[in-house]
Amino acid sequence: MIRSSVPLLAAGIASGCSIIGCGEGSGGTGGVGDCPVGSESCPCTAGGACDPGLTCLSGFCVDVTCETDLDCPNGFTCYLTAERCANADSDLDPPTILSADILPPAAKLDDEIVVRLFADEEIREAEVWYVRGGDIVFFGTLIALDPSEDDDPEIFRYEARGTAGEGDGVAKVQGMVRDLFGNFSELTALGSLVLDNTAPAPQAVTGDLVGASGDTVYLSFSVTEALALAPVVFINLPDGRRDFIMSSVFPPPYEFSLVIPDNAPSNTYSVSMVLVDVLGNEGQWELPAALEIL
């Protein structure tokens, strides 16, 4: 967008007042005359900030988008790469992200994800998202973190929070940042996030679950991923109750054994297990093999 009034800013700068706020005002506060601080053609804030879309030049907030030099104030030229007016003192370099943290590195559906960025300059605008396959999941905008006494004052810290979505696999975390002058950086490789929404499952199940009173039956198996807790294996009784088998060795391999009680009635019972992975995904499985008491 080009502002026809932008070249007129030079007159205001030279006289020390804004285009629409020169001279005596009518009682406006926070600016020159009726010119609110931070708004277009009005003084910048004490920290050099302006309303969104405006840039602080020589103490005043202006729209510095341009197509030719004629769109810029005296002493400024149109920097076509950024389509913005600039002079020798202008910041034309895009912000650099020095490092990024993604915490935790793996998550399941609705888990909170925190993305922290460390930049070499102050960021005015930023967004972060992750890409998995053709899906883009938006985290949110970055907020500035207050520095601690031990922080390097030359490093600017920002944080975005979001939640993990559906699916499984490695997602690329990406984003964009724009500095106070409007220079833009596309962040295509901030890091990765492992999405895991699949419950762990048993595999390679072996054992001998057939026996009479006093016999020891056993069960051995592995699982598809690391577990947070030892597996729980139980026998499904005819009345709907569950009779838990003793715990196994943890971590794997998982081996369960059971001594069939004396005088146990002959019957066949289905065997089930509960598995919980490190992210909290829980799977309940009924095994193809059944406990058969002779």
CATH superfamily of the largest domain: Immunoglobulins
How big is the Rg?
33 Å
User: How many helix segments?
Assistant: 1
Approximately what portion of the residues adopt beta-strand conformation? Answer: over 45%
For the record, the CATH class of the largest domain is: Mainly Beta
- Broad shape: rod-shaped
Mean pLDDT value: 81
Q: Per CATH, what is the topology of the largest domain?
A: Immunoglobulin-like
Write up this protein.
The structure is a single chain. This protein is mainly beta and about 290 residues long. It folds into three domains: about 80 residues, no CATH class; about 100 residues, Immunoglobulins (Immunoglobulin-like), CATH 2.60.40; about 90 residues, Sandwich (Immunoglobulin-like). A hairpin with a 5-residue loop joins strand 22 and strand 23. The radius of gyration is 33 Å and the shape is rod-shaped.
Spell out the key features of this protein:
single chain, 294 residues, mainly beta, Immunoglobulin-like, 3 domains, five-stranded mixed β-sheet, 23 strands, disordered N terminus
